Amino acid sequence: MLYDRWRLVARTFSDHIAIRDFTVGRQWTFQELSIDAERASRVPEKAAFPRGISAEFILAVLQAWRQNQVVCPLEAHQEPPPMTSALSPGIVHLKTTSASTAGSRLVAFTEDQLVADAENIVATMGLRPDWPNIGVISLAHSYGFSNLVLPLLLNGIPLILPGAPLPEAVRLAARGEPGLTLAAVPALWRTWHDADVIPQNVRLAISAGAPLPVALEQNVFALRGLKIHNFYGSSECGGIAYDASDGPRLDPACVGAPMRNVTVSVGETGCLEVRSRAIGETYWPEPRPGLGNGVFQTTDLAEVSFGLIYLRGRLGEQINVAGRKVSPDDIESVLGRHPDVHECLVFGIPSADRRGEIIVACVVAKTTVSSETLKQFLLAQLPAWQVPREWWLVESLFANQRGKISRAEWRKRYLETIAPR
């Protein structure tokens, strides 16, 4: 079905540009892309493992679809999983989870589930063939595959590949287009905003992969009149929510309304439950609770009010302070409003008596600022027990390839290098 639908798209948009790849200085029409995909000879392998952010990735996917191989996209550093366990009939795709709350896992998808996710995204966001996507995010990640690869191959949304997310590369790739869609992660939006290089012809701006700071969203809107739309999803189920409003959000906890054809509810644990046709079949090679039969149980604590979803932290990331629980997101939300705070990350470490945790704030400052000043700022807005006891000023909070800043990694780093021994 996937390859048949691609062939229909290729015929429909035959002479239109499908891909501009600046890494090789070449472009393909949909007809030329179809011809190149047909040239590959058949191979006996069960799966294909496309990598990179290039036209070669797209061709590898098409050739796998044509040859009925399972597609398992990989980041540059990832090793292919051993394909020794049998996949259920109908499984055509394996996604790697981001390992935000647990070890990385593979999620198995059918053709219908991939198509449903692409349809939900195109319909909800309003992706258009006359607004090509600029591809600066990982095509292997669920976000990039669902927002860039599938809309290209199943809906005829062209893709421009700058080769790197560097400001000059993005500027050159955007040149000459009347309108563009730019999907990125918050770290990239911040870099482009600070460098004043967001292309003027971006008509649709999307941010996912990590929480989009409200201050950044508001600043971009105030300076450029460009609304960055917050997108919330998961590898297990594709798109969950999208902020389609015309103006910037006021509440950082709000991630938008459910995507088209997606329904949500809050389960007994207080976490968000998602139902849609796009939800993955199962974890592979070992099924695990929380995913299956069209339902995905997230670990995101949530509220649903007046049709909007509000995230209140993660079930496993709450900090236990003398028996009372606090979400690090709540503290970060307040701390991030201080005018001298560029970025911040909050986590808990074991207290000396091992009966609770101590709150640590990791801060990237815009200018010289003392921890005492930041502490007093929080004391004016939060209960004293929610104010961090330990402060760590760093030059930057590096994110991984998927745009995520891992609390677990920074907690480990703090315990190994900063915490008293």
Structural summary, described in words:
The structure is a single chain. The chain is of the alpha/beta class. It has 2 domains: 2-314, 3-Layer(aba) Sandwich (Rossmann fold), CATH 3.40.50; 319-417, 2-Layer Sandwich (GMP Synthetase, Chain A, domain 3), CATH 3.30.300. The protein is 28% helix and 28% strand. It has 11 helices and 24 strands. The strands form 5 sheets. Strands 1, 2, 7, 8, 9, 10, 11, 12, 13, 14, 15, 17, 18 and 19 form a 14-stranded mixed β-sheet that branches. Strands 5-6-16 form a 3-stranded antiparallel β-sheet. A 3-stranded mixed β-sheet has the order 22-23-24. Helix 2 crosses helix 3. The longest helix is centred in the first third of the chain and has 15 residues, at 111-125.
Write a brief caption for the model.
The chain is built from eleven helices and 24 strands. The chain has helices at residues 2-12, 30-38, 55-66, 111-125, 142-155, 167-174, 186-194, 214-224, 328-335, 371-379, 407-417; strands spanning 17-21, 26-29, 47-48, 70-71, 91-96, 106-110, 133-135, 159-161, 180-184, 202-207, 228-234, 238-242, 254-258, 263-266, 271-275, 282-284, 291-292, 295-305, 308-314, 319-321, 324-326, 341-350, 357-365, 390-393. The termini are far apart.
CATH architecture of the largest domain: 3-Layer(aba) Sandwich
Measured by DSSP, the beta-strand proportion falls in 25-35%
Mean pLDDT: 91
Q: What number of domains?
A: 2
Could you say which overall geometry the principal axes of the C-alpha atoms support?
globular
CATH class of the largest domain: Alpha Beta
In CATH terms, the superfamily of the largest domain is ANL, N-terminal domain
Roughly how much helix do the residues carry, as a percent range?
25-40%
- What is the fold-level CATH name, i.e. the topology of the largest domain? Rossmann fold
